[in-house]
Design brief:
24 helices; 22 strands
Length: 618
């Protein structure tokens, strides 16, 4: 979860849930804005699929992972291939988890509730999920002390005999004789108000309206002027809005009963406390009105409504007929939905796609040159060995007499992991270009790459300047190699910020001829002679023939751009803007290692060559 939160913090976020999980979505939205400093929005599944919004991190929350709405939303979003789709649920065997497993690029976070199966209102899983999210965000963007504070505050509210809880119960007792409750709140305590509205409605506990303190002033108060005799006010007050709450409540007419719930703690703790207060209040009003909120009874028409099929998203008709693969490929290449294109533009892309496919399909390749991170291993698990499926696919090609090469921005760890993956009999035939092609060696050359030499004269002044920059000292890790400087962010720093700072320093030092590229996790600054194409040139000298390159960062300034935009190539993620090169032809909803495996499954060994099947991408 911490890793998923770290990636999400570089993007605006859409939090998606239904029913009680909508409360958790509001909590996630609050945490993302309050602690990560990024815009967040809350959507139901129906809203989430209504428009193909780009540039977002999408988080789906469902305790059971079984309802038709969240599953349909997951399927739709995953086919759109946004930068991040994360699902939080409580069951590993749920349909939601199964959908995510078929799209391996998604982040599936499963946390079975320790209290076991929930009741109608999913109380325990709701509080558990919100606590987990609060813990992840506070530890990532604040410090351990803030999470300890949150845990201490909430722990003091979990006993029904706690002094604060007893005070809440006494304060609210006078409200339940009134038909309507108006809940007013601040930004910190909105989650509690949202949950009360959900509980009151789902369990039919009574009429309830919610508004923040200032929105209440914009006409919402008129309800009290006309229906004050049957209404009461519940104010949820935190330290952040205490003064505004005091001044607001002072202006309420004397005949309107007011219950004031003071929630303790700093903002993140107050948010959690407001949720605990909502759960307590739900219990008390249920007792007062003779309704068990956990077992309110579900009518037959309610069950039928719950199981009503989710409407299928309508794919807008395109002026040019496309196959499903063409639809996905063109959308990736053009960087926008196919539905937004006119017939002339779409036909142009279709023609370019067909020409690219025609060049590759049925062609013989003497070798395949792979990027490593994001292509052969998932970037989220890049220090783990390639999976058994990847190993089997590579061995199949090697057994047929094909050659394999790796072009990676990393060093000794890649060689070590590949030797741990592939049997030793293949090592002498596997070429590795370490540090973006700065040093070439076979796997059998176990002393490579050289880790002892200092930065070359071309990079040494720049390496020194980077180490002196006060901002990079705070949140970047720098590794110097003979022909490469690698910068990695530590924490949730936008990749663009690292890029901007690096270029500013390069310009300031007057460094000439250096190249700067991005990978999925770092920025590499390399000497002018360094290129992943060095690996391809070495293969051509040794064995000749055509070389197929496969990588994930084909869009400039990605560290595979030069490789994938210069030879026969396939991308498993980002593509270049050149319509003649570097397409991603994987099935819709797949990227990364899964796309690599799909491509390798289409390569047929033949006479010590590797041929892409005719019609492979139809």
């Amino acid at each position: 979860m911490a890793a998923a939160v770290r990636l999400a913090a570089t993007l605006p976020l859409q939090a998606i849930g239904s029913g009680g999980s909508l409360t958790a979505a509001h909590a996630l939205s609050y945490l993302h804005q309050h602690l990560a400093g990024r815009l967040a929005t809350v959507s139901t599944p129906l809203e989430a699929v209504s428009e193909p919004l780009g540039g977002l991190s999408h988080w789906l929350i469902s305790a059971g992972g079984r309802n038709v709405d969240i599953i349909a939303a997951a399927k739709t979003l995953l086919l759109r291939e946004p930068r991040q789709v994360t699902a939080i649920c409580g069951r590993l065997d749920s349909p939601l988890a199964e959908v995510c497993r078929t799209h391996a690029y998604s982040d599936l976070l499963v946390f079975p509730p320790p209290a076991g199966k929930d009741g109608f209102l999913a109380t325990n899983s709701l509080l558990g999920f919100v606590a987990l999210l609060t813990r992840a965000y506070t530890l990532e963007f604040a410090d351990g002390e803030l999470w300890d504070h949150c845990a201490d505050v909430v722990d003091g509210l979990l006993s029904s005999k706690a002094a604060t809880v007893s005070a809440w119960q006494e304060e609210t007792a006078g409200l339940w004789s009134r038909d309507t409750t108006l809940v007013i709140h601040g930004p910190t305590t909105k989650v509690g108000a949202i949950d009360l509205e959900s509980k009151f409605t789902e369990a039919a506990l009574g009429n309830l309206q919610i508004a923040d303190y200032r929105n209440f002033a914009h006409g919402r108060h008129h309800w009290l002027a006309k229906r004050g005799d049957t209404s009461g006010i519940l104010a949820i007050v935190s330290d952040d809005d205490r003064d505004l709450a005091d001044r607001t409540l002072e202006l309420i007419p004397d005949n309107i009963p007011i219950a004031r719930i003071d929630v303790p703690g700093r903002p993140a703790a107050a948010m959690l406390s407001s949720l605990v207060a909502a759960l307590r209040i739900t219990q008390w009003v249920g007792v007062a009105r003779g309704i068990d909120p956990g077992r309110p009874g579900v009518p037959d028409f309610g069950r039928r409504l719950y199981n009503l099929p989710f409407p299928r998203p309508r794919r807008k008709a395109t002026p040019v007929k496309l196959s499903a693969r063409e639809h996905a490929a063109i959308s990736r290449k053009a960087g926008k939905p196919v539905s937004s294109m006119n017939s002339e533009e779409l036909q142009s892309w279709k023609t370019a796609c067909a020409a690219f496919r025609a060049n590759l399909e049925g062609k013989d390749f003497s070798a395949v040159c792979f990027d490593y991170d994001g292509t052969l291993v998932d970037t989220r698990h890049r220090f783990q060995l390639p999976t058994d499926r990847v190993k089997e696919a590579m061995v199949r090609l090697l057994d047929a007499g094909g050659r394999i090469a790796i072009a990676t921005g990393r060093g000794v760890s890649v060689g070590r992991d590949l030797r741990d993956t592939l049997p030793e009999r293949y090592w002498s035939g596997v070429l590795v270009g370490y540090y973006n092609g700065a040093e070439l060696a076979t796997l059998a050359e176990t002393s490579a790459p050289d880790r002892t030499a200092a930065c070359c004269t071309e990079l040494a002044p720049l390496a020194f300047a980077l180490r002196q920059h006060p901002e990079l000292v705070q949140w970047a890790k720098q590794t110097d190699r003979p022909f490469q400087i690698t910068l990695e962010t530590e924490g949730a720093v936008p990749e663009g910020r690292l890029w901007d700072v690096a270029h500013q320093i390069i310009g300031g030092t007057g460094a000439r001829g250096v190249k700067v590229t991005r990978s999925s996790h770092s920025i590499d600054i390399v000497a002018a002679s360094v290129s992943k194409l060095n690996v391809v040139e070495r293969l051509r000298r040794e064995i000749g023939g055509s070389i197929l390159a496969i990588g994930d960062r084909g869009r400039w300034p990605g560290n595979d751009h030069e490789l994938l935009d210069s030879v026969d190539s396939l991308s498993v993620d980002e593509t270049s803007v050149d319509p003649a090169r570097c397409w991603n032809l994987a099935s819709g909803g797949q990227r990364g290692v899964e796309a690599t495996l799909e491509y390798l499954g289409l390569l047929v060994p033949q006479d010590r060559q590797l041929r892409l099947k005719s019609g492979a991408f139809s």
